[in-house]
Design a protein that fits this description.
426 residues; mainly alpha; 69% helix
Amino acid sequence: MTDAATSPSPALLAKAAVPATIVGIGAAVLLFGVDAIAHALHGVWWEDLPELLGIDGEARWWAAVILIVTGALVGLTLWKAPGHGGHDTATVDLVSPPLPLRTLPGVAIALILGLAGGVSLGPEGPIIMIATGLTVLAYRRFLPAVPIPAVLMISTSAMLGAMLGTPVAAALVLTGVLGGGAAGQLWDRLFTPLVAAGAASVVYHLLGGASWDMGLPDYSAQWVDLLSASVIATVGAALGVAAAATFAPAHRAFRRLRHPMLYVTAGGVVLAGLALIGGQITMFKGAEETAELLENVDSYAVGTLALIVVVKLAAIVISGASGFRGGRIFPAMFTGVALGAFAHALIPSIPLTLAVASGVLGVVFAVGREGWLALFGGVLICGSVGVLPVLCVAALPVWLVLTRAPHMLVHVEPEEAAEPPAVPAR
């Protein structure tokens, strides 16, 4: 039974909701601004320059050139920018220690360059670092009594709400993070993070942010779907595990070059080779590419879809391991969609909506190790809550594959990590 004396009063929770709402609005504006800048730079590199030079911006060789240039520019940023681009996103989870204010511009530059240049990483890691750094600084200035861990939860929730368009994802992720605490206090601890996430998701939609509605067909569950979903999700998990097993060795291999200009540029060269093989559909964070793939799914051959899955997984590994700044959840969702499209093309009797949701479940679970987020991602992509019961069953064999499998995360010694101070300073 919950002890009322340990729970904050409704008045105190309502008071805490005010700054959390401000954080949510700020997170939405920050994400929209970064997206807008990256989109503008994308237009310069992929449309304006090719038109000026009289070349085909869709050509694979041009994609290879842009990726190499992007690698060099991100490497230069990591070398010269104060704070060297913040935490290496290959070595930290979504919630990482807050960065000093002077480090955040370098994080933003590295993120924007990668998003515009076609690197197979999403914005989630770096954009959460930026939001966290700014939010911690603001709370220390105006509300110093709020514990830093609570501020981290608020800022992370706000950005998750903005990126995924709903506070539900933040609730699911934070339930996993906070679930070890007293059950009666869980929603007290989730209250302000959910306020921030709700405000962020609403404001981001009002600003015209991207939607996750992919227009997939309606879905109605059949008994055979339990088997189909389990097989697709398990295959996705196995592919994710195979990619995760190569992540740390690839990270070590690139770091043998020692200098960021060398190892990030080398990553750009390898990504250029992958772009020549897989084309631009296997580049970028994957959100727009997901819509493109599903809109034209019937025009892709089975072999082409298999190639897209393999190349995209390789691109995720190389992008993260070679020093580019970004998250792996968004491109993992695209990979899961491509795997689902492959399964549907191979066996057309499997509903496309179910196949896509199951593929997303398996790949995202393996890459991110967030079970709730993987389930939510599958439902989000297909736009049908009807797949949820089937996905919950499919998640069971997936976990058997993942329970002792390697994570797509590099563990480094404290002195090797050279983390910045835990509390930001002016």
